Structures are given as structure tokens and as C-alpha cells.
Amino acid sequence: MSHKYPDSMEELVTLFKTLPGVGRRSAERIVLSIQKWPAEKTKRLAVLLNEMPDRIGKCPECANFAMDGALCSICASPSRDPSIVCIVEDSSQIQNIENSGMFKGKYHVLGGKISPLQGRELSELNVPSLKERIQKGAIREVVMAFSFDIEGQATAACLAEILKDMNVKITRLARGLPVGSDISYVDSATIAAALSGRTGME
Ligand SMILES: [Zn+2]
What we know:
Blueprint: H1 7-16, H2 24-35, H3 39-55, E1 56-58, E2 65-67, H4 73-76, E3 81-88, H5 92-99, E4 105-109, H6 128-135, E5 141-144, H7 150-163, E6 169-172, H8 188-196, E7 199-200
Helix pairs in contact: 1-2
Bound molecules: zinc ion (ZN).
Zinc ion binds at residues 59, 61-62, 64, 71-72, 74-75.
């Protein structure tokens, strides 16, 4: 195969092509666009990418994205209500719930959902630190914000079972989210409605 671009550009195209939703043509367009950037901007991008593996990790409290081992911006914020915690599958869902503007509490990232088919159990998820947080006593309510698919709802049911003796109110998002929907992609108005209409889990 003859190379259309210099080797390093070709390698960049190959890397960008592995991003979600980016095909060969889009990857080429991205690389050609970066190639036109001022040197300062390109070097800043390189610095940020270079730091990423070492500096971006998990918040020690909620497992959201955080920098340098510190608390995430939500856990660190004094204006967030520590008595209500929204449990999500992944950090990527937090931004979408934040966009709804309806939630003023804190979060807990479970790191996935149980999957009988893939043999993934609740014990593999970030549950012990959630129990620890509840045991500290500041949390009055946990809101299960899982996707409305079989795995998401099974996770909510298992988790509710584990937390039921922990003196904390357990609620879940109101029905109204489309069946099978992933919280990451639901529009903010729908999330806002599901949050305000949340119901207790018995
Ligand atoms: Zn946090």
C-alpha cells in the first residue's frame, strides 16, 4: 500500500480512526485540520494527551473523573447536597444528568452493571465504597439512575437488596425514559422529568 501521507500523519489517522464514530475520512479531516493549527495549540494538545494517563484518574470519593488523586469538582463543591447521591453506571453519564440542571446532590460511579450473560456480578462493581459512604451517615437518599434495559434494572434491584437495611431511602428514576435507553444519550428534559418524578424502591 502506498502511503498518502507522511508516516507520522498516517499513524495519527490510524489512531483517530479508532475513536467512536470516526471513520477513515473523518480521521483524515481531523489530522489535516490539526496540521493547520498554530504550533502552540498543537503542542498544548500533545501536553494534555501526554499527561492524561498519569493525571486523570478516579475521584477517591465517588469514582468520577478527577485529576491528580484529588476529589472531583462535584465532591469538592460546598454547594452540592451531600445527603442525596445519584448512582450511575459510568462517569460519562454524570455530564448528561448535570446538563438537566435538576440534580444538586452528589454521585457515585458503580463502574458498570451486572450482566448474567457476561458473568459480571455486583461484587465486581464499586459497591463497598458506596456502603462506606452510606455508613458515614450523611446520605439520606440514593437515586438509582441506571439505564432502562434488563441489565440496568437487574443492577438496581440487586443493589436495592444490599442497601435495604442501611437506613437510607432508595429511589429510582421515574418511568418515562424509553425502554432500553442508555442514560448517556437521553435528552436533558427527559432526565429532568425522570429525576423529579423519581419513585421509591421497596
Ligand atoms: Zn467525586
